[in-house]
Amino acid sequence: MAAQARPTRRTDLESAGMREEVSVPTPAPARFVSGFVSILGRPNAGKSTLLNQLTGTKLAIVADKPQTTRTTIQGVLTEPEGQVVFLDTPGIHHADSAYNRRMMEAVKAALDQRDLLILVVDATVPFSRADRQAVDLVARAGAPTMLVLNKIDLLKNKSVLLPLIAQYRSLHDFTDYLPVSAKKGESLDKLRQIIFTHLPEGPLYFPEDHITDQPERFLAAELVREKLLHLTRHEVPHAIAVIIDQWQETPRLTRIVATIYVEKDGQKAIVIGAGGSVLKSAGTLAREEMERLFGVKIFLQLNVKVRAAWRENPVFLNALDWRTMAGTDET
């Protein structure tokens, strides 16, 4: 019988060696703050990497492909001085399919009733009309917005940052401007401090060990997709969807059966690879990371099916959303 979906807690991942912490008694802070912070930006700006780094746990998959993040992903950071509920979002883009429109609806929903918005931009890319549209989108939300200029580790000449900041400053009155490297962790301690200063006094919204509202089965499906994003090229990444069909837990082993969906027979051949090489590599890499994340032995079985134009199928799209994920092959 499939296990019920449950939110992932920090203890689940700590047992796998993802994060080591030493418990040191500290005096209770005089002021405890809490609030909701949405992370927004164009595709490939590094939003998911930033979420993972800020929370200290891998919650969102990362790849050098646009639209890697397809739905909102919650990550919770709890410190002695407060609790931040982060929301990672799909990249701001022009929606040309039913699936893309759903992604942009998720982005717009993440703008509502937030204590702080973080607009992440790729500091290595020249300012464009698409960047202006992203600024206009967050400006209309009316919430305090911080500009984070990411990927500064890739800049040979950091003097380009000042003109870039000036360009954004001319379009919107951001509360703060901070260059960072999410990948290298540069200036992220300062970013956390700034975030806490923008939050009001508030309650502990989630238990201290809560890190995300995503069930483990969704994380597993995303890990399979991440490995395929790294292993495939051209149009295939955008056509890949993964659904967990079976999830069975025993004291020693979790058995997972997942189906990878593509839109064309040619894409199926690429995902499988010569002699099954690509599918085997993706399965091995995903299984190994699942074992590190979940702290248990994993048996992973992957199947590949063709479902034409799944990005335009509302019922199938509902099956992909973890909030409505049925774990079955819906038609």
Name of the CATH superfamily of the largest domain = P-loop containing nucleotide triphosphate hydrolases
The largest sheet is: 6 strands, mixed
Give the strand order, joined by hyphens, for the main sheet: 3-4-2-5-6-7
Structural classification? alpha/beta
Rounded Rg: 20 Å
**Would you identify the regions where 5 or more consecutive residues have pLDDT less than 50?**
14-22, 325-331
Q: In total, how many domains does the architecture comprise? A: 2
Query: What is the average per-residue confidence, as pLDDT, rounded to a whole number?
Result: 85
- Helix and strand string, N-terminal first? EHEHEEHEHEHEHEHEEHHEH
So what's the overall shape? globular
What is the count of DSSP helices, taking H or I runs of 4+ residues? Answer: 10
What does this structure look like?
The protein is α/β, with parallel strands linked by helices. The protein has two domains: 33-197, 3-Layer(aba) Sandwich (Rossmann fold); 214-320, GMP Synthetase, Chain A, domain 3 (2-Layer Sandwich), CATH 3.30.300.20. 32% of the residues lie in helices and 24% in strands. It has helices at residues 10-14, 47-55, 98-109, 129-141, 161-169, 188-197, 216-231, 265-272, 277-294, 314-320; strands spanning 7-9, 33-41, 73-79, 82-88, 116-122, 145-150, 176-179, 210-215, 241-249, 253-262, 297-306.
